[in-house]
Amino acid sequence: MNLNPYVNIHTHHVGEGINVLDVGEGKAWIEDEKRRGIEEGQEVFYSVGVHPMKLGEIGEDALTCVNDMLCTGRVIAIGECGLDRRSPVCIEEQERVLERQVELGEKFRKPLIIHCVKAYSELIAIRKKMKSSIPWIIHGYNNNEQILRQLLEHGFYISAGTALLNDRSNAFHLLRHVPLNRLFLENDDKTVGIDVIYSVASGILGLTVEELKRVTRDNLKNVFAI
Ligand SMILES: [Zn+2]
């Protein structure tokens, strides 16, 4: 029997299944890539982007680097990029850098993987203002129902991760409110295997793991054409 692969839409380390590996703005990526062997059962794609928490330490040329990287094979997304109230850089500057990345996404037709902390109204406003037509995927969603509803109304995709392991989390309680055709799963920078995330999510959704893998595989195909 040919099983579907796990789809891990946002990770910082490669594991089983199809991985969208976050390589930051991409500088160190090529060297790492030469060193890393791919094991059987693993497939790797990349996302490159400027993280709002790193804005203070990296210069403007990071966006040029992202631009160059987007022409590279197997780079399928921009991210993680977004807005974070905890960043030492002011929200206006973060918005400016995010808007530049949205422009790159539109230019290269690459979806965005979004990191957002306490700035959802600003985030939604930017998507509206820029009339963005590419998919935006909120990674690690763990916020309330009202924000979830707004994000869905505005066409966002939702990715849930290790918060699902906590049955008192928003993610756990709201997972069933995410339409299956907008859902992704991830393990981010955590050591928890993607198989564990799928197992917990399938229990919450009342699907088998294989059915859930089919759902995210179809979504990957629809969003990234891979
Ligand atoms: Zn991450």
TrEMBL record:
<protein>
    <submittedName>
        <fullName>TatD family hydrolase</fullName>
    </submittedName>
</protein>
<dbReference type="InterPro" id="IPR032466">
    <property type="entry name" value="Metal_Hydrolase"/>
</dbReference>
<dbReference type="InterPro" id="IPR001130">
    <property type="entry name" value="TatD-like"/>
</dbReference>
<dbReference type="Pfam" id="PF01026">
    <property type="entry name" value="TatD_DNase"/>
</dbReference>
<keyword id="KW-0378">Hydrolase</keyword>
<dbReference type="GO" id="GO:0016787">
    <property type="term" value="F:hydrolase activity"/>
</dbReference>
